[in-house]
């Protein structure tokens, strides 16, 4: 229900963000106590990325009415918004930063959000597991787009050569995209999984949010924060406040309400994607800066998400 009393909206906002904080706290505690090491948390991230998240997207899309979702231009507007962000970041960052290893990280930090792992946790809490079709479709479109743009940016500033086939291979190997494509196929043929398969699929999919946030809490490090404080401050303000405020204003002016506004908040207001750090390590970019961006925005986004959710509920936009 849109709107609601101040107390109801505060409680909803708390109910969305507090479990995420607790999951991250469990991960941090396990790491600090030495019970689980960084290598194990990276393994947990792989479980989310290669199994739980693809199955969650598969279930959401397979059970949805795709024709109703695609009747709206909302997803097209999301793609345009991401492309605009990437273009602006690619124009502005090289003018204010002269170090190639940092340029690509700052560009990625600005346009690439953690909409899949972080966003689905928020979307599930706000919309419920039965209303994730639009979110899953937005992820199906944004994940390959984020990957293409990130590879272009990384290859350009790290002196590599970007080829069409190299990009295509990276996209086709993405497990989240494969899960979404399987969901499309299942929806089109009205596939009903037998209970013996549907039960473990649902169980593994339900691991996505808790396991992802426990792993995030266990892998976050703030060691290089002082050295990168200017870049982290600027990107955090853009990623968590300025960009979502502008994007939400545009979508509201276009007449969108309810579920699309929740999805827009997540696509444009989620913290810096964890893949930013992974790619930075693998391609010789400034991984210290990338790690600081992921850690700081992940923590601060808990506060900014609470703020946006509460305001949007108060104004009856969601």
Structure, explained:
It is built from 15 helices and no strands. The longest helix has 28 residues. The mean pLDDT is 87. Helices cover 78% and strands 0% of the residues. The chain is mainly α and 318 residues long. Helix 2 crosses helix 10, helix 2 packs antiparallel against helix 11 and helix 5 packs antiparallel against helix 7.
Question: Can you tell me the overall shape?
Answer: globular
| Rg for CA atoms | 19 Å
Q: Helix coverage percent of residues?
A: over 70%
Distance between the first and last residues' Cα: 8 Å
Main sheet attributes: strand count, strand direction, barrel closure: none
Mean pLDDT: 87
Low-confidence stretches: none
Which structural class should the secondary elements be placed in? mainly alpha
Bin the strand percentage: under 5%
Total of helices? 15
Oligomer class? single chain
Number of strands: 0
List the secondary-structure elements in sequence, H or E. Answer: HHHHHHHHHHHHHHH
């Amino acid at each position: 229900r849109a709107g609601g009393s101040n107390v109801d909206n505060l409680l909803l906002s708390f109910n969305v963000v507090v479990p995420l904080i607790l999951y991250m706290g469990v991960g941090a505690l396990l790491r600090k106590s030495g019970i689980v090491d960084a290598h194990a948390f990276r393994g947990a991230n792989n479980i989310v990325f290669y199994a739980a998240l693809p199955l969650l997207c598969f279930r959401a899309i397979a059970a949805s009415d795709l024709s109703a979702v695609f009747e709206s231009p909302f997803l097209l507007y999301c793609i345009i918004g991401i492309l605009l962000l990437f273009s602006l970041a690619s124009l502005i960052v090289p003018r204010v930063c002269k170090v190639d290893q940092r340029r690509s990280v700052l560009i990625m930090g600005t346009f690439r959000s953690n909409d899949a792992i972080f966003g689905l946790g928020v979307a599930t809490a706000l919309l419920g597991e039965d209303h994730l079709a639009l979110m899953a479709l937005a992820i199906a479109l944004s994940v390959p787009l984020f990957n293409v743009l990130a590879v272009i940016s990384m290859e350009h500033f790290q002196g590599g050569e970007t080829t069409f086939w190299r990009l295509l291979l990276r996209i086709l190997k993405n497990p989240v995209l494969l899960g979404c494509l399987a969901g499309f196929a299942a929806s089109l043929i009205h596939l009903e999984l037998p209970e013996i398969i549907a039960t473990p699929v649902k169980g593994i999919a339900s691991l996505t949010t808790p396991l992802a946030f426990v792993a995030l809490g266990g892998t976050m490090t703030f060691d290089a924060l002082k050295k990168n404080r200017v870049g982290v401050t600027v990107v955090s303000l853009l990623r968590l406040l300025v960009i979502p405020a502008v994007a939400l204003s545009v979508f509201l002016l276009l007449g969108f309400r309810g579920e699309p506004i929740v999805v827009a908040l997540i696509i444009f207001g989620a913290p810096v994607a964890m893949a930013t750090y992974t790619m930075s390590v693998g391609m010789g970019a400034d991984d210290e800066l990338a790690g600081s961006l992921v850690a700081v925005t992940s923590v601060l986004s808990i506060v900014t998400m609470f703020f946006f959710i509460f305001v949007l509920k108060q104004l009856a936009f969601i």
